[in-house]
Design goal:
Elements: E1 2-5, E2 8-12, H1 18-25, H2 28-31, H3 43-52, E3 57-64, E4 67-77, E5 82-90, H4 99-114, E6 119-125, H5 129-137, E7 141-152, E8 155-165, H6 166-178
Parallel strand pairs: 5-6
Antiparallel strand pairs: 1-2, 2-3, 3-4, 4-5, 6-8, 7-8
Amino acid sequence: MGFVKNGLKFREVEESDLPYLRLWRNMPEMAAGWQSPESVQTAYGQLEWYKSLGPWKQAYIVEDQSVVVGLLRFTLEPEKRRGALTGTDVAPNKQGKGYGKRILRSGAEYILHDLGYHRVTAESLDLNEGAQKIIIAAGFTHEGTLRDYVWRNGEWRDWEIFALLESEWRANYEHQECNS
């Protein structure tokens, strides 16, 4: 099961995707800004992650015209009508082409519009300024900083929190429709 948004196809991660994702996520250019040397993806760890997926924790391979361009991960809290985009990765050979923003916007639209949730968040390590720019460009508002929240590369780092409300998404979406 999956969905299509903004010209991108989102399909559920399958076990056969894991070797490719592990290779991809362990590339130095993919880990820049968030991953520490001790967090290298192992086959066992990735299989455990895959087994943890389900109705409230989901992961999707993102394709553009049948070519893999990224990975979107999110969690859902249906009783609170909120979701969290917990990870957006763009394939190394597709970076710098606008896919990060499209993937984030699509994930937010799916959670806020299709699922009818009230709020969606996105988060970033303080070092990952590129991700923060993309999150803001996708319509999210910076809400705050969790100070010394994550241990990375032998030091405590801050964690940045961003959010988009259903009313903000709707106002932006309706504005885009009126101007198209």
